[in-house]
Amino acid sequence: MAHTGWGGAPEDDRNCSPGVAPHRGSGGLPRRAAILALVVGLALAACSSSPGVSGQTPVNSTTSGPRITVAMVTHGQAADPFWALVKDGAQTAANAFNVNLVYSSPVTTNPQQQAALITKAAAQHPKGLVVTIPDAAVLSGPIKQASSAGIPVIVMNVGANVYQNVGALTFVGQNEMVAGQEAAREMAGNGVHKALCVIHEEQNTALVQRCAGFTEALAAKGGSVTTIHVDGAHVNSAATVIENALKADPSINGVLTVGIEGFQAAGGALQSLGKFGTIKFGTFDISAQDLNAVSNGQALFVIDQQPFLEGYMAVQVTALEARYGQHPFGPILTGPSLVTKANVAQVQQLYKSTGVPLFNGGYPQ
């Protein structure tokens, strides 16, 4: 059936946690300039307590010297608007630090194609390489080859538990198990005892870890979770799968989606069933639509890993390492940050003030 639009820790615990958005437990920032001023100093200042050998002290501007090339190869499929925010942050950092950013990714999540893109990028001898690792078995080889060849490697978004194994300098993103546990605490606190966790993208360990953390933490509170996989690139059919799962088990009183595409599909299913409010709803990753849903009570929360900041800091750290041989000696955590009805207006205003565009529906079918 057709569904229409609706609704407006890593092993190393030495980490940096830049709380940029005015989410629970942090203060707001008025505009994009404030974000940029903050992140310029975070990587070196916040993680410098760990032992290691650092390079020269940057006495001049980070934009001094010749322009450098940084390659960024992610698994982010073109249909997923999350990656537009990552790329926006990465390009903003590239502009700030005199970097020629070369971004590439498969059309759909495909570790084999991503591995080929990493090998191709490394062959161009960039001054730095930023990668995601949704499938370590497939991607570790080409990433290790790049780091062994002397290319500084930064892992972002997914790969918190394996970045050290591939010779990467640091990780930028969130601990997905912890993020899933945060979702479970919020669901349980709102009376959810049986939940559906929806994964919208295959071959992505981050999304599996979100559901795993959610399942583990809800079970600890006496609840249970059923996990299903849908094709997030085809929202109408994904919504039908979710709707059928909810019909098959009327005792389910909570739905968690692990990304924006799954959120739209589950929203269509809940709308079709008339279950908004009856079935509690939460999701991962910021969009205009899910923030509106939190604001109007259709959803309980959004867990935000701050993708703009994620992309920005990955490029920033790479540029500093390439120019000065300095980098953080631990992961940089950009999330999880919980957005609820209590702080959603602040978060909406932050994104509006910074000018970061948010996705607002309209996936290709």
What is this structure's SSE topology?
Blueprint lengths: L31 H15 L21 E6 L8 H15 L2 E6 L6 H13 L4 E4 L4 H13 L4 E4 L13 E4 L2 H14 L4 E6 L5 H16 L3 E6 L5 H14 L5 E4 L2 H14 L6 E5 L3 H8 L5 E4 L2 H18 L7 E2 L3 E4 L3 H11 L11
Parallel strand pairs: 1-2, 1-3, 3-4, 4-5, 5-11, 6-7, 6-8, 8-9, 9-10
Antiparallel strand pairs: 10-12
Task: Please explain how this structure is put together.
The protein is an alpha/beta fold and 365 residues long. It folds into two domains: 32-40 and 63-174 and 306-334, Rossmann fold; 176-304, Response regulator (Rossmann fold). 41% of the residues lie in helices and 15% in strands. It is built from eleven helices and twelve strands. The chain has helices at 32-46, 82-96, 111-123, 136-148, 176-189, 205-220, 235-248, 260-273, 288-295, 307-324, 344-354; strands at residues 68-73, 99-104, 128-131, 153-156, 170-173, 194-199, 224-229, 254-257, 280-284, 301-304, 332-333, 337-340. The strands form two sheets. It has a six-stranded parallel sheet, with helices on both faces. It has a six-stranded mixed sheet with strand order 7-6-8-9-10-12, with helices on both faces. Strand 1 (68-73), helix 2 and strand 2 form a beta-alpha-beta unit. The longest helix has 18 residues, at 307-324. The radius of gyration is 20 Å and the shape is globular. Mean pLDDT is 84; it is low at 1-5, 9-14 and 19-60.
